[in-house]
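Structure first, sequence second, as always.
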């Protein structure tokens, strides 16, 4: 299961150097070094995907580009100072995904729904409006909460259009994202056991994904909407 695939300390050293020299001249001069570290991270992600496929179905793995889109940002530095990858669960049947963010002092794992489309978001909100007991029970399971903490994500300041701002589940209904994150120390990321530790964390989130898959593949009567 890829136990020997690790993230080397040299990756962190490079990212710190990039942070202090975030310009095109420096980056071009160190591009071979960047390519080497990028390849190392990609190998780690491929091993993580292999592990995930032992207990989930991953449709796509993505290693995000290092180049920043600065068109609408006040920060004009051209490069990201982290590596990141995303694993998409199987299409219409499962939904959601897993994330990994590698950055000195700011690494973390993620899981959930970062940008649900408006139809999915409305379906989740209607489910929570009707009954959120099972949802709360799942996100408060001891193992899940021990590993991942509490549900996070951007949210509206008030109720979404068409929903009662006094609804008892408005704390959940107003969310725009439904994600969990787990902060990681540098020592954890550089540990020989990190690959397996990440996979154990992803396994712990499965009850949440199972519930969300059920919600997003059925109507409010519990009938399948998949063809």
């Amino acid at each position: 299961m890829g136990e020997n695939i690790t993230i080397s300390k040299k990756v962190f050293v490079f990212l710190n150097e990039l942070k202090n020299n975030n310009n095109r001249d420096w980056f071009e001069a160190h591009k071979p070094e960047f390519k080497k570290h990028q390849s190392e991270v990609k190998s780690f992600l491929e091993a993580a995907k292999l592990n995930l496929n032992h207990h989930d179905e991953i449709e796509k793995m993505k290693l995000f580009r290092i180049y920043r889109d600065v068109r609408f940002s006040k920060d004009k530095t051209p490069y990201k100072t982290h590596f990141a990858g995303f694993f998409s669960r199987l299409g219409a049947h499962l939904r959601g995904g897993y994330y990994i963010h590698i950055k000195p002092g700011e690494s973390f794992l993620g899981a959930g729904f970062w940008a649900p489309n408006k139809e999915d978001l409305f379906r989740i909100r209607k489910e929570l409006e009707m009954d959120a007991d099972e949802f709360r029970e799942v996100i408060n399971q001891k193992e899940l909460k021990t590993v991942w903490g509490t549900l996070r994500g951007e949210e509206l300041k008030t109720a979404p259009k068409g929903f009662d701002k006094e609804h008892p589940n408005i704390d959940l209904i107003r969310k725009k994202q439904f994600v969990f994150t787990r902060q990681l120390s540098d020592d954890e990321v550089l540990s020989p056991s990190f690959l397996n530790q990440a996979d154990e964390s992803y396994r712990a989130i499965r009850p949440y994904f199972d519930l969300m898959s059920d919600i997003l593949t059925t109507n409010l009567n519990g009938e399948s909407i998949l063809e």
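Margin note: The chain has a mean pLDDT of 95.
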